[in-house]
Amino acid sequence: MLASRVSTVQPLHSTDPMAHSLTLTLFPATTSSFRLRHSVAYAVKPLTLRSVTRRLTLSPVRACDTSQQMGGNGSKQRKGLIWVQPILKFARSNVLPLALVGAVALGLACPSLGCAADKYNVSKIGPFGIFVISGLMLRSEEVSAAVEAWPVGLFGLVSILFLSPYFSRIILQIQLQPQEFITGLAIFSCMPTTLSSGVALTQLAGGNSALALAMTVISNMLGILIVPLSITKFVADGVGVTLPTKQLFKSLVLTILIPLILGKVLRESFKGVADFVDRNRKLFSFISALFLSLVPWIQVSRSRPLLLMVKPRVFLVAIGLGTLLHLTLLVFNSIAVRSISVITGGRKSIFSQEENASALVLVASQKTLPVMVAVIEPLQGAFGESGLLVLPCVAAHLNQIIMDSFLVNFMRPRDNSNDAKVV
Q1: pLDDT in tens, 324-351
Q2: Burial of 70 by CB count in 10 Å (0-12 exposed, 13-18 middle, 19+ buried)?
């Protein structure tokens, strides 16, 4: 016969003051007279207040649960927002590439709109608006801060305006039909640096943004005088065309210098204008990108019949040549700045400072599209169909921004959280 014994109730090691365990054990009454071959043990699972309340806990009712019961509309809207947010973030970070690609696509899909805009000289509004905005966003203290690194800036200007145009001679040796693709890239290599992409990328890389801005402004202003001469020497002789230098100089002054001065005067004359522009720099960058997209839109719309006659393989070759041009300029400027730093004092040289070197390499290796368009417009077909001249340069402009965006990821300091936008 088995007898039972109730053990004492002992508290569990728990933070719950109400948690207790109750253990019942069965054992033989007389162990001497009765031995079991197999011992029997019965275990009762501890019963706690926590285990009971855990089963009785009710899940909170959410609004989306109700909507799911009513058809799932709320869940679908929520999933839709999850997909839209990354797209909007990508669009805000890549305004210029998307604007240029969209302009080319619109020109190819619906050329009638671009041709109608061309009749009202809308293409001239784009470059004028871009340089007005550049003057409005130009801070005087940023330009003066670059004085300390003037030797680096001086070499950058030499590389942009005097050395890189020599690559056009090499480009013109390539045989490709239509020849306008090659001529356009050769003209593109004679251009000054980009208006804002180089500065924004320099900020992201943690470089000397004031030096980058100074090289950008000065190269574009000096480019009004030097670009016509460079095209005449390196491109026009190669294609047997006499360039109307006076007409081109007048066009550059009206399209670049005057609007740039106008924007800067407005900024310095009215304190409210400067404050408003500084608070809304992203908005003005977006407007500048839209102005820039007007040019390829009209050019592609006007030249659509010719563009459709171009074989895709030929256009891919032209894109590859534009990419190769930018890679060549990156390698050339990188080797040049390292060599000059060794000659001028090694680590103590101002060229060896990473912030100055990154500013020079990024800015001096890029070429601007608006000045390219301002150069082609007054030529009136002297070098061929303007749309065919511009199209490979649009691709080259996009490629250099995309390539340098990846390059900046390797140049950027780990603690740099600058959120500058590339435009």
Answers
A1: 999 999 999 999 999 999 998 778 888 8
A2: exposed
CA distance 376 to 348: 44
Is the peptide bond between 259 and the residue preceding it cis, with omega within 30 degrees of 0? no
pLDDT, tens only, 60-117: 444 444 444 445 555 555 665 677 778 777 777 777 778 878 888 888 888 889 888 8
User: Is omega for the bond preceding 11 within 30 degrees of 0, making it cis?
Assistant: no
What residues does 24 pair with on adjacent strands? 6
pLDDT score of 165: 93
Q: Give CA–CA dist 212/199, Å, rounded.
A: 5
Closest to 172 (Cα-Cα) out of 181, 183, 188: 183
For residue 211, the one-letter residue type is: L
**Number of neighbours of residue 282 by Cβ within 10 angstroms:** 14
Count of CB atoms within 10 A of residue 398's CB?
Answer: 21
Q: Is 346 exposed, middle or buried (0-12, 13-18, 19+ CB in 10 A)?
A: exposed
Give the integer Cα–Cα distance in Å for 392 and 185. Answer: 7
Residue 301 and residue 118 in contact, taking contact as beta carbons nearer than 8 Å: yes
Tokens of 346: 């090694």
24-28 and 10-11 strand pairing? unpaired
C-alpha atoms less than 13 angstroms from C-alpha of 353 in its C-beta half-sphere? 14
CA distances from 285 to 215, 235, 274, 370, 391 (A): 19, 32, 15, 14, 22
